[in-house]
Specification:
Layout: H1 15-18, H2 26-44, H3 49-53, H4 55-64, E1 71-74, H5 81-89, H6 124-138, E2 145-150, H7 157-169, E3 173-179, H8 190-200, H9 202-221, H10 225-244, H11 246-249, E4 253-259, H12 263-274, E5 280-285, H13 293-297, H14 328-342, E6 346-350, H15 354-357, H16 360-365, E7 370-372, H17 377-389, E8 393-399, H18 400-403, H19 407-415, E9 422-426, H20 443-448, E10 454-456, H21 461-471, E11 479-482, E12 506-509, E13 514-518, H22 523-535, E14 541-544, E15 547-549, H23 553-562, E16 565-573, H24 578-588, E17 594-600, H25 610-617, H26 621-631
Parallel strand pairs: 1-2, 2-3, 3-5, 4-5, 6-7, 6-8, 8-9, 9-11, 10-11, 13-14, 13-16, 16-17
Antiparallel strand pairs: 10-15, 12-14
Helix pairs in contact: 2-4, 4-12, 6-7, 9-10, 9-12, 14-21, 17-19, 22-26
Bound molecules: thiamine diphosphate, 1-deoxy-D-xylulose-5-phosphate and magnesium ion (MG).
C-alpha cells in the first residue's frame, strides 16, 4: 500500500535534496520522516522501534555528511528505514521485506548509499575501519567513515576487536554509539552499567559542555581547527579522563553524551567532528520507539510488532479459522522450565534473544538459572562449555544463523572435549522476511562434519520435548536440536516425556517405488502431500530421520534395499546437508538408487514469507508432489497402510 509523505519529505529523494533545506527545517523533516515510517510499518510490518529512535540521527547524518562519498555504516541495519527513505527508496518502501521487494537491511547491491550489507550485529566498526584504511592507502582525501552502532551491538566481542584496532590506526573513523539502553530486550552487562554511569556522571556532563563550547567555536577557527582542539583537549582532559573513560583509554576521542533527538545540534556536531582526524566516538542518548508512545513504553514488544493500528496502537493478529499450534520457541521455553524443575543441573543461556527464543519464560520462572549474556554468541558457547566442565547441563539457545559466529567455539571448546552442552538452534531453515542474513541454511552442513556431535531435528512439538529430555541425560555429550521459526503442528503438545534412542529414525508409512526421507518440520510437508498423491494412485513411503548424526543405518539399509527412488527433503542447504549424507551412505555401502534431493540450492535466498521461499527453493508440499509424480508408477489399487 502506497502512503503519502509529508510536504517537505515528499521533495526529498536523495540527501542532495535534503541539503537544500535550512537547518531550521530539519525538525519538521524529522517529524515527517517519523510519520512516514509509522504509516508504512503499521500496514506492512517490520522492525519499528529502532528506526523511530534514530530519525533525528539519520537526518543529521545525511545533512552533515557528503554521502555516498562519505561512508556511512549501519550496525545490524534494522534501524536504517529512515536511511532507506532518504536515499532513493521512499517510493519503494512499501515493499520493505516483501517477496521481491527491497530488503529490510542495508544491502550493497540495493543502493550505493548502503556501504555494507548487514543483518548480524556488531560489524560496523571493523567495516568502517576497513574503509578508512583503504581510503588512506588509496590516498583519498576528506572522506568520512562513520559507524552507527547500538549499545546492544556494542556488547559483542567483534565490536571491541574493531575499537581495539581503530585505536592505533589513526584513520578517519567516527563511531556513533546509539545508546538507548535496549537490545531487543533490555540491554545487559557491565558495559551497559558503565554507559549509564557516564551518562549521569557530573564530571562527564561538565566535560561534555566544555567540548561543546570548543566545537561551537570550531567553525570560526578554520581548517586548522583540530590543532586547537588537541591543545584544549590536553588541558581539559589530561590523563585523568583518559584513564577513567573506556573509549579514551582505547585512543578514541570521546564526545558526549549528547541528546540524540536534537537534530539541529546533532547535524552541527557531526559537521564539527568531521574536521577532527583520527578515531572519535560520539555518544548519543536516544529513546527506542521515540514518537510513538506505546513503542516508547514497551520497547521489546515494539521492536518488530507486526501490523498495527497506528491510531489506537492495537497490534493486529491474523485470526485463523481454528486454534493454532504453539510456536516451537514457546514449546522450548515451557519445556525448559519443566526440565529444570526436575533436574537442578540445567541452565538456560541466550545471547541477547530472551524473547525471540522464549527463554524469557524460564528467566521469569527461575531467574538465577537462565541467563542473557548479551550479543555474544562466541562467549555463550564457551561459557556453556565452562558450565559443562563443572557437571551442569547448559541449554545454549542460539538462532541457527547467529551460531555461524561461534563455529570455532563449538569445535574447540565443546566437541573436542565432548562436553554435555545442548545447542538449541532456533530459526533453522528459511527464516522469512529477514532474508539471506537470517536464514538458518547452513547448520546441518557445518555441524555434520564435526566429530562427537549428535544432531537432531524434531518433526513436531512432542518430538522437540522428547529430544530436549533425551539431551539432558548424563554423559550424552554435545547435542544439537534444530527447529524452525513459527508454529508446530500439534494442538495437545504437552505430553509426558519419553527418552528417544539416539540415532534412531521412524517409519511414517510404507509405500511403493519411492521413499521420502525427511528431517525435522518439513516432514509435515511430505505428510500433507500424501492424500493428493494417493488419490492419483501414487504411494510413496515416508521416513522421518529425526537424527542427522548419527544416521539410522538400519533404517537406511531398509530404504535402499526396498526402493528405487529416494527423495530427501530438508530445510537446509543441499550442499553438505542431509541429502549429501544419504549419498555418502549409498556410496559407502555400494547401493545404487536414484537419489533426488530437495532443499536450499547453492545460492543466497532473499526475503519473503516462509511459504513463498519454500516454494521458490522447491521443497514445499507442492514441490514434493511434483518430484514424486515425476518418478513414481501409478497403481490402480493399493494395499499400503498409512
Ligand atoms: C550476531 C547477532 N546476534 C543477534 C542478533 C539479533 N538482534 C538484532 S537487533 C538486536 C538488538 C540490537 O540492539 P542495539 O544494537 O542496541 O540496537 P537497538 O535495537 O537498540 O537500536 C539483536 C540482539 C543479530 N542481529 N545479530
Ligand atoms: C534484526 C534482528 O536480527 C532481529 O530483530 C531479528 O529480525 C529477529 O528475528 P525473529 O523475528 O525471528 O525473532
Ligand atoms: Mg540499543
Amino acid at each position: 500500500m502506497q502512503v503519502k509523505a509529508g510536504p517537505l519529505l515528499s521533495n526529498i529523494n536523495y540527501p542532495a535534496d535534503l541539503k537544500q533545506y535550512n537547518e531550521d527545517d530539519l525538525e519538521q523533516i524529522s517529524k515527517e520522516l517519523r510519520q512516514y515510517i509509522i504509516d508504512v510499518v503499521s500496514v506492512n510490518g517490520g522492525h519499528f522501534g529502532a528506526s523511530l529512535g534514530v530519525v533525528e540521527l539519520t537526518v543529521a547524518l545525511h545533512y552533515a555528511l557528503n554521502t555516498p562519498y562519505d561512508k556511512l555504516v549501519w550496525d545490524v541495519g534494522h534501524q536504517a528505514y529512515g536511511h532507506k527513505i532518504l536515499t532513493g527508496r521512499r517510493e519503494l518502501f512499501h515493499t520493505n521485506r516483501v517477496y521481491k521487494g527491497i530488503s529490510g537491511f542495508p544491502k550493497i547491491t540495493e543502493s550505493e548509499y548502503d556501504t555494507f550489507g548487514v543483518g548480524h550485529s556488531s560489524t560496523s566498526i571493523s567495516a568502517a575501519l576497513g574503509m578508512a584504511v583503504a581510503s588512506q592507502l588509496k590516498g583519498e582525501v576528506n572522506r568520512q567513515h562513520v559507524a552507527v552502532i547500538g549499545d546492544g551491538a556494542m556488547t559483542a566481542g567483534l565490536a571491541f576487536e574493531g575499537l581495539n584496532h581503530a585505536g592505533i590506526e589513526n584513520s578517519n573513523v567516527l563511531v556513533i554509539l546509539n545508546d538507548n539502553c535496549m537490545s531487543i530486550d533490555p540491554n545487559v552487562g557491565a558495559l551497559k552499567e558503565y554507559l549509564t554511569s557516564i551518562t549521569i556522571s557530573k564530571s562527564y556532563n561538565r566535560f561534555r559542555d566544555d567540548i561543546s563550547s570548543v566545537l561551537a567555536s570550531l567553525s570560526k577557527l578554520g581548517p586548522n581547527a583540530h590543532k586547537y582542539v588537541k591543545k584544549i583537549e590536553k588541558s581539559i582532559k589530561g590523563t585523568l579522563l583518559k584513564q577513567s573513560n573506556l573509549f579514551e583509554a582505547l585512543n578514541f576521542r570521546y564526545f558526549g553524551p549528547v541528546d540524540g533527538h536534537d537534530v539541529k545540534r546533532l547535524a552541527q556536531t557531526i559537521k564539527d567532528l568531521s574536521a577532527i582526524p583520527g578515531p572519535k566516538l560520539l555518544h548519543c542518548i536516544t529513546v527506542k520507539g521515540k514518537g510513538f508512545a506505546l513503542a516508547e513504553k514497551d520497547q521489546t514488544k515494539w521492536h518488530a510488532p507486526g501490523l498495527f493500528d497506528k491510531i489506537t496502537g492495537e497490534i493486529k493478529k491474523s485470526i485463523p479459522d481454528k486454534p493454532q499450534p504453539p510456536k516451537y520457541q514457546d514449546v522450548f521455553g515451557h519445556t525448559m522450565v519443566e526440565l529444570a524443575e526436575a533436574n537442578d543441573k540445567i541452565v538456560g543461556i541466550t545471547p541477547a534473544m530472551p524473547s525471540g527464543s522464549s527463554l524469557n519464560i524460564m528467566m521469569k520462572a527461575m531467574p538465577t538459572r537462565a541467563l542473557d549474556v548479551g550479543i555474544a554468541e562466541q562467549h555463550a558457547v564457551t561459557f556453556s562449555a565452562g558450565l559443562a566442565t563443572q557437571g551442569l547441563v547448559p541449554f545454549c539457545n542460539i538462532y541457527s544463523s547467529f551460531m555461524q559466529r561461534a563455529y570455532d567455539q563449538v569445535i574447540h571448546d565443546v566437541a573436542i572435549q565432548k562436553l554435555n552442552v545442548v545447542f538449541c538452534l532456533d530459526r533453522a531453515g528459511l527464516a522469512g522476511a529477514d532474508g539471506a542474513t537470517h536464514h538458518g541454511a547452513y547448520d546441518i552442513a557445518y555441524m555434520r562434519c564435526i566429530p562427537n556431535l549428535v544432531i537432531s531435528s524434531p518433526m513436531n512439538e512432542e518430538e522437540l520435548r522428547n529430544l530436549m529430555f533425551t539431551a539432558q541425560q548424563e554423559n550424552i555429550g554435545p547435542f544439537v536440536i534444530r527447529y524452525p521459526r513459527g508454529n508446530g503442528v500439534m494442538a495437545d503438545w504437552k505430553r509426558p516425556f519419553k527418552a528417544l534412542e539416539i540415532g534412531k529414525g521412524r517409519k511414517i508409512c510404507d509405500g511403493e517405488d519411492v521413499a521420502i526421507l525427511t528431517i525435522g518440520h518439513v516432514g509435515n510437508f511430505a505428510v500433507e502431500s500424501r492424500s493428493e498423491l494417493n488419490s492419483e494412485g501414487i504411494y510413496p513411503a515416508h521416513y522421518d530421520l529425526r537424527f542427522v548424526k548419527p544416521l539410522d543405518e538400519e533404517l537406511l539399509h531398509e530404504v535402499f534395499s526396498k526402493y528405487k527412488y529416494i527423495l530427501t527433503v530438508e530445510d537446509g542447504s543441499l550442499q553438505g546437508g542431509v541429502g549429501s549424507a544419504i549419498l555418502e551412505f549409498m556410496a559407502d555401502h555400494g547401493y545404487t538408487a536414484n537419489v533426488i534431493r530437495l532443499g536450499i540450492p547453492d545460492q543466497f535466498i532473499e526475503h519473503g514469507e516462509q511459504a513463498e521461499l519454500w516454494a521458490e527453493c522447491g521443497y514445499d508440499k507442492q514441490s514434493i508432489i511434483e518430484a514424486v509424480r515425476k518418478v513414481a508408477v501409478k497403481r490402480v489399487t493399493n494395499t499400503m497402510v498409512g
